Amino acid sequence: MQDLDASKLSVTITMSPGKVPEPDSEEVHNMKTCSDHMVKVTWTDDIGWHAPTIEPYGQLTMSPIASCLHYATQCFEGMKVYRGFDGKLRLFRPDKNCKRLVMSSARVALPTFDPKELEKLLKAFMKADGPKWLPKSRPGTFLYLRPAIIGNGEQIGVTAPSEVLLFIVAVCWPDLSSGTRPGTAPQPPGLKLLASKSDVRAWPGGFGYAKVGANYGPSFVSHMEGRKMGYDQILWLLGSDYQVTEAGASNFFIVWETKERKRELVTAPLGAKVILEGVTRGSVLELARERLATGSTYLTSDIQKLEVIERDFTMLEIEQAWKEGRIVEAFLSGTAYFITPVSAINFRDQEIDIPMGDGASGYYAALLKKWLRDIMYGNVQHEWGVVVEEE
Description:
Layout: E1 10-11, H1 26-30, E2 37-44, E3 48-49, E4 53-56, H2 67-71, E5 74-76, E6 79-83, E7 89-92, H3 94-107, H4 115-133, E8 141-150, E9 163-172, E10 191-195, H5 220-228, E11 233-238, E12 243-247, E13 250-257, E14 263-267, H6 279-291, E15 307-310, H7 315-323, E16 327-334, E17 338-347, E18 350-353, H8 363-376, E19 385-388
Parallel strand pairs: 1-4, 10-11, 10-17, 14-15
Antiparallel strand pairs: 2-3, 2-4, 2-9, 5-8, 6-7, 6-8, 7-19, 8-9, 11-12, 12-13, 13-14, 13-16, 16-17, 17-18
């Protein structure tokens, strides 16, 4: 069986190139415009991974009895490529996304591969489309990258698919953390969350830790109901004690003070495999442990030292901290929403207002966002910012 091998890549240039939309335009906010090309790699159970291609972006065709259409044999990743203020293209910690896609693929009985080969394909893809779609004249912009794997073999029988397609597309994407959209009135800063009631997103022993479509589609029902009520995302709770897990498709963080007035940054743990191991989540935790500890030069009157804690915690604890005035701030992290502050949580029909620091964001969220943005856009040189070589 052949392994995934980026050295076998062939490239076919499109004869119908598209037009790059203006930054922050309505076209960008619609999130439907893709770059000129896409990566495609087929896997079959008799050969293994075939030679990868970069070819013109276009529609996929498959059988009505394709496995992914009936049994959710599919998984995906979400990541971005950035045009730095130093003129360079960068991926942010692509090794993490590539490893996670391998894990997700295995969880739904799809083939695995060397994640380093996928990273090479991502770099080759952006070498082809990055210069046009992220021109050097537009520093501080990005594209959203969607690597995905689907079981597209004719497999109506209840079994693993005999044919699989790995593909990667690049999508023009807005800065969702800004909270603005052209042609609409400015929205109040911060996201409003609606705590889930009877519905759950994931459970111990399930697949909430894998980035598979089956984690997302069922959650849309609660999400759309929440939007009708004026809330931006669902804060997913689990169990009779209202254990906090994720918010929408993002990881959730809260900064509070203990009753002894010690500040903590708290987020749900990975051990039960209920939440996704977010790349941004892990980066927030690493930076906070490194830069917000005792003796750090980053500490100020607003930015006090934090103890970083990954543990199970509940909405009852958040509610109690709110009543006692101990909540400092809360925010979400993820590729789509980056670092976005939370302004309110509705729990059991009670609105819990969350402090917003300077009125636009909590101080910790703003600082962590700046640190990550500096790495992504090359304002500081860091091993997490992986440069894509261009012609």
